[in-house]
Design a protein that fits this description.
Blueprint lengths: L1 H14 L9 E5 L5 H13 L6 E5 L6 H14 L5 E8 L18 E8 L8 E10 L12 H23 L8 E3 L5 H11 L20 H10 L9 E6 L3 E9 L12 E3 L1
Parallel strand pairs: 1-2, 1-3, 6-7
Antiparallel strand pairs: 3-4, 4-9, 5-8, 5-9, 7-8
Helix pairs in contact: 1-2
């Protein structure tokens, strides 16, 4: 994982027009956070000139860790506590958990990174219009397969709540959404979440419907990168991150797709 983390951070900084020294905080999101992981991430950060940035670990969110970290980063920037936050997510599967919960996908090792800042980023940046997170701790105690109807109904309620909150913060309606992006999970799962969010199938990002290659939070950023290559999907987009107990929704739009008026309440994701 050392090289994956280092490469992801390096690529994010290469695309970011600002100086590495301007980054105030590094949020590291992973399902496995240990002192050894902290040393690995710290070494990668020091190598890129981030020795004085605070390193904070976020976990417990499973495959929703990335969306949660971006939500926290955006809140810090909007509150004026910091101007620039680096977000890194990395995970590796074990022999015991290569198949995701409810058989939604096969887990791969991966790492990705992005910069959340108040100032505009580079040409590949996005504008964050709204974020929201919902959770349900009671689901940690149940057998998913034995209580599948309860699990699905609870999930649907939480996903709707996160989506509505993110859309409300963004000031857009669900009908305004031009693209729906998820991690690489099974087609039936994408259909389930798309129906819950009331997103028409023609707006789903096709590459996010892969049955294999799900890499916790990493594939969300990769799918965003690929989705922006479609000139007909100019935004806004709904990005949905899901885990068995936590769900995150982001409403974003490619930076160059913004209209001429200034959006003072939004933040940048680079």
């Amino acid at each position: 994982m050392d090289e994956l983390i280092a490469r992801a951070l390096r690529q994010a900084l290469d695309r970011w027009p600002g100086a590495a020294a301007s980054i105030d905080v590094i949020l590291y999101a992973s399902t496995r956070i240990s002192p050894a992981d902290a040393d690995t991430v710290s070494a990668a950060c020091r190598a890129e000139g981030l020795s004085e940035a605070a390193l904070i670990g976020l976990g417990f969110g499973g495959c929703a860790n990335l969306a949660t970290a971006i939500h926290v980063a955006q809140a810090l920037v909007r509150a004026g506590a910091y101007s620039t936050v680096a977000v890194i997510t990395a995970d590796r599967g074990s022999d015991d958990d290569r198949v995701a919960a409810m058989d939604q996908g096969v887990l791969s090792d991966g790492a990705s990174a992005c910069i959340v800042a108040a100032k505009p980023g580079g040409p590949e940046s996005f504008e964050i219009l709204g974020t929201a997170t919902r959770g349900h701790q009671g689901l940690r105690e149940i057998d998913f397969m034995a209580r599948r109807p309860h699990f699905l109904m609870t999930t649907a309620k939480a996903v709707r709540g996160a989506t509505r909150a993110a859309l409300s913060q963004a000031g857009v309606e669900v009908g305004d959404i031009e693209g729906f992006i998820t991690a690489n999970i099974q087609r039936t799962s994408v259909q389930f979440y798309g129906d819950i969010c009331r997103i028409a199938p023609e707006r789903w990002f096709p590459d996010s419907k892969a049955d294999l290659g799900h890499s916790f939070g990493t594939d969300l950023l990769e799918n965003l990168r690929r989705a922006r290559q479609n000139p007909h999907r100019r935004g806004p987009w709904l990005v949905l991150a899901v885990s068995p107990y936590l769900w995150g929704a982001l409403v974003i739009t490619p930076l160059q797709a913004l209209d001429a008026r200034e959006r003072c309440s939004t933040d940048r994701l680079g």
